Amino acid sequence: QVQLVESGGGLVQPGGSLRLSCAASGFIFSTNYMTWLRQKPGKGLEWVATITDDGGRATYGDPVKGRFTCSRDNAKNTVYLQMNSLQFDDTAVYYCAKGVGYTPRGQGTQVTVSS
């Protein structure tokens, strides 16, 4: 079955950086787009980024454009989200999802931006 395990979250100061990872298994990773989502406290799921199956192109939501970069390593079945210039409003649980929708997705990793 599909398994997605996010890691790399934590506490970071405003302006700092984090790199999230998502290890995938249970499906043919290299033939699937992958998506990053986030859920801020008390809010619904928000699309963050989607990357093509070959990693050649990624698209981003307006709030993160220019600050976040999505990449993948198909040899390692892993997708990444490099987050730079983090802001208080980036505090959320971050999820990776198979494909371009919201499911299936992993359990998430908490990112907290605080001084």
Number of helices: 0
Mean of residue pLDDT? 97
Low-confidence parts lasting 5 or more residues at pLDDT below 50?
none
- Could you tell me how far the N terminus lies from the C terminus, measured between alpha carbons in angstroms? 40 Å
Biggest β-sheet description: 6 strands, mixed
The rough form would be described as globular
Annotation, overall tally of beta strands = 10
Q: Going across the major beta sheet, what is the strand order?
A: 2-10-9-4-5-6
What sequence of helices (H) and strands (E) makes up the elements?
A: EEEEEEEEEE
Q: Could you tell me the radius of gyration in angstroms?
A: 13 Å
Secondary-structure blueprint of this entry?
Blueprint: E1 3-7, E2 10-12, E3 18-25, E4 34-39, E5 45-51, E6 58-60, E7 68-73, E8 78-83, E9 92-98, E10 109-113
Parallel strand pairs: 2-10
Antiparallel strand pairs: 1-3, 3-8, 4-5, 4-9, 5-6, 7-8, 9-10
Can you characterise this structure?
The protein is mostly beta strands. It is built from no helices and ten strands. The protein has a six-stranded mixed beta sheet with strand order 2-10-9-4-5-6, with no helix packed on it. Strands 1-3-8-7 form a four-stranded antiparallel beta sheet, with no helix packed on it. Strand 7 (68-73) and strand 8 (78-83) form a beta hairpin. The model has no long low-confidence stretch (mean pLDDT 97).
